[in-house]
């Protein structure tokens, strides 16, 4: 499933958001709605991709985010020659949204 930025912004309730680390400095975002992960897309239905985790966090700052995690599939076992695992080797790290910039003080 997919969700556009506009649809995401119009959600009534805050939702869980997952930032997927795909490669070195390449990220995609999914939004969890009713237990299903929906890929965040642009107005033309193309997946939004980011080259900066900070840019993702700044974008999400203005959207209805209940919780935010960074998810990465680890290839560690494969890299050191261990047998493949039966389950996934997924790492999830909680993230915070950036603080709003303080108003300029005179």
Are there runs of 5+ residues with pLDDT below 50, and where? none
Taken as a percent bin, the fraction of beta residues is 35-45%
Over all CA atoms, what is the radius of gyration? 16 Å
SS-based class: alpha/beta
Percent helix among the residues? 10-25%
* Number of helical elements: 3
- Total strands: the figure is 6
Order of helices and strands: EHEEEHEHE
Main-sheet strand order equals 1-4-3-2-5-6
What global shape is seen?
elongated
Provide the residue-averaged pLDDT.
Answer: 88
Q: Summarize the biggest pleated sheet.
A: 6 strands, mixed
Distance between the termini: 48 Å
Which key terms come to mind for this protein?
single chain, alpha/beta, elongated, 3 helices, 106 residues
Tell me what you see in this structure.
There is one protein chain. The chain has 106 residues and is α/β, with parallel strands linked by helices. 16% of the residues lie in helices and 38% in strands. The protein contains three helices and six strands, in the order βαβββαβαβ. It has helices at residues 5-9, 53-60, 76-79, and strands spanning 2-4, 15-23, 26-33, 36-41, 65-73, 90-94. The protein is elongated, with a radius of gyration of 16 Å.
């Amino acid at each position: 499933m997919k969700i556009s930025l506009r649809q995401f912004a119009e959600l009534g309730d805050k939702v869980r958001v997952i930032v997927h680390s795909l490669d070195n400095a390449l990220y995609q975002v999914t939004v969890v709605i009713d237990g299903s992960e929906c890929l965040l897309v642009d107005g033309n239905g193309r997946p939004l991709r980011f080259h900066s985790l900070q840019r993702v966090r700044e974008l999400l700052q203005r959207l209805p985010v209940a919780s935010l995690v960074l998810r990465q599939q680890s290839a560690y076992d494969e890299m050191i020659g261990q047998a493949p695992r039966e389950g996934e080797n997924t790492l999830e790290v909680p993230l915070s949204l950036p603080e709003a910039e303080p108003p300029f003080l005179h």
